[in-house]
Amino acid sequence: MHRHQRNLLTLVLFLPLFALLSCSPAYFDPIRTPPEPLHVRGLDKLSWNELWAGIVFNGEKVGFSRLKIAPLPEEGLFRLESEAHLRIRFLGLSKAISMKSEDRVRANLQSVSLRHEMVLDGKTLLIEGYVKDGVLHTIRKTGPEAEPSETKLREPLYPAAAINLYPVLNGLAAGLKYRYEVYDPQTQSVTAVSQTVAGFESSRSLGVEPSWKVKTSMLGQDVETWINRKGEAVFELGMKGVLITHRETENEARRYLSEASLNKKDLVLDFSVIRTERPLACPREATLLEVSLTGIAGELPLLQGPGQEASTGGGDGKAVTYRIRRNPGSPAKISGPPYDVDSYRWLLPASQVESDHPEIINTAREVTRGLSDPLAKVRRLAAWVAHTVKEAPVDSFSALEVLRTKKGECQAHTMLYTALARAAGIPTRMAGGIVYMDGVGFLYHAWAESDAGGWVSVDPTFDQVGVDATHIKLVEGPGWLAIVPIGRVVGRVAATVIDYQAACRP
Predict the structure, then answer these.
(1) Any idea what the CATH number is for the domain that residue 440 is in?
(2) pLDDT at position 502 over 60
(3) Cα–Cα distance for residue pair 184/17, rounded to 1 Å
(4) Do 52 and 65 contact (CB within 8 A), yes or no?
(5) Cα angle: 134, vertex 14, 483; to 5 degrees
(6) How far apart are CA 175 and CA 110, in angstroms?
(7) 364 and 256, same structural domain?
(8) Residue 10: its pLDDT value, please?
(9) Is the model's pLDDT at 397 over the cut of 60?
(10) What number of other Cβ atoms are within 10 A of residue 99's Cβ?
């Protein structure tokens, strides 16, 4: 296996658990005469207090989730306990993910306080917080140091664990629509949720009793959930049925470890990899790639440059043609100010990119000492990250963590490079997409783009300033949140190579 193959983007694994993709309702039958609308007027009126569910990915059981509701001594307050545990094969390795949340809420689900813990590869992210006077106060911990933050709220806040409860407490009837904001601990952000009650259905083949069908959109992604007449979420589908969450007993749910140990399918090699009819020789030396991708159109924006042209012309409009030339890594200097006016927004810190942290600033200053040319700084920083951060199949919570641990996958390299470049005064954005790996196919990957007198692509994993032509950019943005929408197309993309050129070394 190529030394970089384990270093590719693992975003499909750690997207918000229930921020899944829309699916076909082919296995469900609508019920023409639905019951009276369901409207439970407060958590204290629910007829249940605990739900267990099994999680199935690509036909194999990989984990379970649990939600428990309990009243608190404080008048009118409730505790929402939620957890999810998964074990998935990833490039031959067994990856374990554990997420636990404890939210204090009012009877109408509005947030009072929160505590979220996520464990990836044995590393822990802890977020604690509370809402006071329209402001969300949080403290983030990935080690001994605590990072406080404040977010001014525009409207009442709800916990992510309440997503399947909100329609129950506000009305389940065909056509009803809702919009509200939740705190998502996995992206560490306040984000909008939109929901529509789409009808009343059942599925004999899937064992789903007559239930309300609710479509939820969050972070540009969609999920379909079936909620029964008791207000219990009994079934969820995502990724065209590839990801399933279904109600189980506690004993059934907890057996996932024994079942997951027998799983054979690999998240990347059996699901995420995009294969081509013919292999592409020496991809790191690729100078030209023209490829047609299906599964992209209508799901993601068609991004251009640097070195990339995207178009949908011709045919049925379902395929996107990308023509990519290797970025030379030496942008032509522009007249006037050193950067485009719009570029200044790419100097700001962002989610998991702490470019304003003293450790990041000091490191950037030391690495670029003696350099004044922006492009020279870009080259120095990219090389430093590539050679300093050890390639390891572990996931990272932030650029600061990567700086301290000096190990991680491609998103770790990219977060750290982006933070350092911004701290050095170089406008930089994150990019996500696919890249060709020799002998495998296209895999999901992350890299960056910096304005060094003109935009230049930078891959701090491969130490490329001017990336090879097999890098196909699908999303871009200031931080990790901008990469999340790529999950909408994972497992659905097919590639047809039209033209390919590479300057293969003898």
Answers:
(1) 3.10.620.30
(2) yes
(3) 10
(4) yes
(5) 75
(6) 24
(7) no
(8) 40
(9) yes
(10) 22
When pLDDT is averaged across residues 260-267 and rounded to a whole number, the result is 64
Distance of CA 46 to the CA centre of its chain: 32
Cα(430)–Cα(10) distance, integer angstroms: 15
Question: Number of folded domains in the chain?
Answer: 2
Judging by DSSP bridges, how do beta strands 177-184 and 157-159 pair with one another?
parallel
Tell me the pairing of strands 428-437 and 407-408: unpaired
Question: How much of the chain, in percent, has pLDDT values that exceed 90?
Answer: 55
Alpha-carbon Rg for the chain, nearest whole angstrom, is 24
Tell me which residue range forms the domain holding 382. Answer: 273-502
Residues 79-109: tens digit of each pLDDT? 999 999 988 776 556 678 899 999 999 999 9
Which one-letter DSSP state was computed for residue 269? I
Q: Minimal CA–CA distance to 86: which of 112, 66, 115, 108?
A: 66
Its pTM stands at 0.75
User: What is the amino acid identity at position 433?
Assistant: G
Q: How far is CA 407 from CA 255, 275, 353, 392, in A?
A: 33, 28, 16, 6
Pick from 470, 421, 467, 419: nearest CA to 447? 467
Span 197-217, pLDDT tens digits: 999 999 988 889 999 999 998
